[in-house]
Amino acid sequence: MFEFPDLASRLAKVRHFRALPLPAIQEIVTSGQVQTYPVGSIIYREGWECAGLFVLFRGRVHLCKTSFHGQESIISVIDPVIMFNEVAALDGDVNPVTAIAFEKSITWHISRERFQPLMEKYPILGISLLNVLASRSRRLISKYEDLIARPVKARTAKLLLDLSSYGTQPVDRITHSNQILAARISTVPEAISRSIKILRDTGAIETTRSQIIVNCPDTLAEFAQVDDELFKL
Fold first, then answer.
1. Which end of the chain is more exposed for a tag (fewer CB within 10 A), N or C?
2. 193-205 burial, b if ≥16 CB within 10 A, otherwise e?
3. What is the pLDDT of residues 37-93, one digit of tens each?
4. Under 8 Å CB-to-CB from 201, ≥6 apart: which residues?
5. Nearest CA among 3, 9, 8, 95 for reference residue 44
């Protein structure tokens, strides 16, 4: 578990807290608490009362939505050190997504009731949250565009390009099972299996039990229907 000075130091590294003086960081830290979540545990559920604001210090968290048919989609993957559940923390309404600890995770958490006075005292906090919301809104719009404009095969190819950093590293099959890949692009595992087979048959990728290796990222970019230069910036 983190000691107080270490916790303050880690929170100060969050991009949206960097402008705050150390006394302000210390006040914010003491207003929240550190929590640990085992793999697979639910941090909070979609539609439940506002759970407050979280900062992930260690591990990985999936933010998920479930359709009326029970299909789960991963809206966002949270890695350290990033805030999440900022929407509910701002408006006080229910949690818009379910947060699941994909790995053993350590978070700093503050309730909305405690966070609101801090935003009034330190306006930079509210401004920072607006920047987070703007960034995530753009990513959601981009994901929506993928869903309406690209078939599953193209979305699969694009995801593999992202996960492999344009073919520079293998995709771990333990971490990214067909079920997880399907949830990332809002489809079903069977469709992922078919898409991977097509991409493998073309030679663009090869697969083992433990890895997906991108042999020809340019070919994969063609399947993804994207400009390969976007991945090389």
1. C
2. eebbeebeeeebb
3. 999 999 999 999 999 999 998 999 999 998 777 788 999 999 998 889 999 998 999
4. none
5. 95
What pLDDT does 149 receive? 84
* β-pair type (98-101, 53-58): unpaired
Residues near 105 by beta carbon (within 8 Å), at least 6 away in sequence: 36, 37, 43, 56, 58, 59, 60, 61
Assign 41 to helix, strand or coil. coil
Among 154, 132, 145, smallest CA distance to 224 is for 154
Q: What is the bridge-based pairing of β-strands 72-78 and 205-207?
A: unpaired
Query: What is the reported pTM?
Result: 0.82
Which ranges constitute the DSSP H helices of the chain? 4-12, 22-31, 86-91, 112-121, 124-149, 152-163, 178-184, 189-201, 217-224
- Alpha-carbon distances, residue 179 vs 76, 184, 186, 190 (angstroms): 15, 9, 10, 9
Around 198, how many Cα atoms within 13 Å sit in the side-chain half-sphere?
Answer: 15
Please give the average per-residue pLDDT across 16-45, as a whole number.
88
